[in-house]
Amino acid sequence: KLFFTDYGNAAKVERCDMDGMNRTWIVDSKIEQPTALALDLINKYVYWLDIYLESVEVADYQGRRRQTITKGRQIRHLCGLAVFENYLYTINSDSLSILRINRYNGTDVQALASLDDAKEIRVYQKRTQAAARSHACEADPYGMPGGCSHLCLLSSSYKARTCRCRTGFILGSDGRSCK
């Protein structure tokens, strides 16, 4: 799945398959300007920053069990968001520091380090790295990913795929080659 935020005409947190299909709204009310997103892959929670409402919130993948983690003017200066164990990590663009926030109560906020310039933060942890397994976009005997001439995108599962073309090309009637 692909998770993303949008604050165009109607602000929301959404998810879809990797090929863009099955687009689903997770949160679409009491949200104004979601600018960063982080996933708890193990427990299936999505966290986001809303800089307009000055809040950090969480909900499960279906938009249920929504809670506010923390609120306040300091949120408008945050960018980037990552989750690891009991904490959220973010960048304060005003003080140029990495902040650690307790994701269960939001009160334990600690500055960890100063930076020259950063807009995004990621935590890499072995448990969240999926084990490699065969999938529908593996190269065929001719070296084409999933048998697609340009792009192969996983669909509703790792066993299904959709072929797409680069800009300026159209997908042929075989659903795999681009012209």
From TrEMBL:
LDL-receptor class B repeats lie at residues 1-43. GO terms for molecular function: Wnt receptor activity; Wnt-protein binding. One of its GO terms (biological process) is canonical Wnt signaling pathway. It comes from the Eukaryota. One of its GO terms (cellular component) is plasma membrane. Signal peptide: none annotated. This is LRP1B protein. It comes from Chaetorhynchus papuensis (pygmy drongo). The gene is Lrp1b_1.
